[in-house]
């Protein structure tokens, strides 16, 4: 998945200079005005040798910030006198989720447009110590953790998906009272307690406001505009056919007014085949969708999370609305059992 961000002419020029100057240790790169742009380069502390790579690491602390993602193009001299280039992506764990989305979905663009063949390896880091720490580099070299480099064990796609999973888990479990980058906090049983930080289409608000018994309203996020929009609205939907109306390829926020009750069930589906940016934006904005519905008068007491619509069965919906006596009425945000299990 690409973000639409491209390498600027300034970065192309800066990278050409960096690539031809062996005394340059690091070329930091950020995203500004929809482009990848260079920051001032850093030189080695002393002659560029294998040892000077380690002794030059501490100066990176001057450009690393605890909530700001950054790309670091590093030159690492070898014992043979040559050098390898490393493309390091730094996405702090407590950075705003939208910034995480942008940098995670652009990291492959950076190396591809500069020339993938010019980089010997790529590194993904979420903590400063993973960049500044000598032990972290020893582990990457295979000198730690049983002699196996973690990056060598994971492919590029696996690293990107790991970043997505981290963002999704953070959005799902966020610590009460902590701003995780989407605005406000969320607590069970007390409403969303947050402001809407993403634009919402009027059609989506109207559909939620008009939701009736048996109705199914689906919202999604328009990726180019990052706006919550109406994906579909159906009436008289039987529990057994809810799944047939939900997309199996793109994430959806679905609101289903269970027939014959006053219960509105919120269903968040995020198919594994959807793009990285789709998954990260929808995961981080799920509370926004709930807050929109509550502001339009809906009371969301039941919530289900699934990877696909096939998991939203009539039995599962029935269990949410009328749970077995030994499970009580409050099930929280539950993952449905997969069909056949």
TrEMBL record:
Residues 4-141, 193-322 form the ADF-H domain. Pfam families: Cofilin_ADF. GO terms for cellular component: actin filament; cell cortex. SMART domains: ADF. Residues 180-192 have a biased composition (Gly residues). PANTHER family: TWINFILIN. Interacts with G-actin; ADP-actin form. This is Twinfilin. It comes from Penicillium arizonense.
């Amino acid at each position: 998945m690409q973000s639409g961000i491209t390498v600027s002419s300034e970065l192309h020029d800066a990278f050409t200079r960096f690539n031809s100057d062996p005394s340059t240790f690091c070329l930091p790169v950020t995203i500004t005005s929809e482009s990848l742009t260079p920051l001032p380069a850093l030189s080695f502390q002393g002659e560029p040798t294998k040892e000077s790579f380690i002794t030059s690491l501490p100066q990176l602390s001057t450009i690393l910030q605890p909530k700001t993602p950054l790309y670091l193009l590093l030159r690492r001299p070898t014992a043979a006198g040559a050098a390898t280039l490393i493309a390091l992506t730094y996405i702090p764990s407590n950075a705003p989720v939208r910034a995480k989305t942008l940098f995670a979905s652009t990291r492959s663009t950076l190396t591809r447009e500069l020339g993938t063949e010019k980089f010997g390896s790529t590194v993904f880091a979420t903590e400063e110590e993973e960049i500044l720490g000598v032990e972290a580099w020893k582990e990457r070299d295979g000198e730690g953790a049983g002699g196996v480099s973690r990056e060598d064990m994971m492919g590029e796609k696996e690293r990107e998906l790991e970043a997505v999973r981290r963002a999704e888990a953070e959005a799902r479990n966020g610590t009460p009272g902590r701003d995780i980058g989407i605005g406000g906090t969320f607590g069970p049983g007390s409403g969303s307690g947050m402001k809407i930080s993403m634009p919402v289409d009027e059609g989506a608000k109207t559909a939620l406001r008009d939701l009736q018994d048996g109705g199914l309203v689906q919202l999604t996020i328009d990726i180019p505009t990052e706006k919550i929009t109406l994906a579909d609205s159906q009436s008289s939907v039987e529990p057994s056919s809810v799944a047939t109306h939900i997309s199996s390829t793109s994430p959806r926020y679905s609101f289903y007014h269970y027939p014959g009750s006053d219960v509105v069930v919120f269903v968040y589906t995020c198919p594994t085949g959807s793009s990285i940016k789709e998954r990260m934006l929808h995961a981080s904005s799920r509370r926004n969708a709930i807050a929109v519905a509550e502001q339009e008068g809906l009371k969301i007491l039941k919530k289900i999370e699934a990877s696909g619509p096939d998991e939203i069965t009539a039995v599962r919906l029935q269990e949410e609305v009328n749970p077995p006596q030994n499970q009580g009425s409050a099930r929280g945000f539950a993952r449905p059992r997969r069909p056949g299990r």
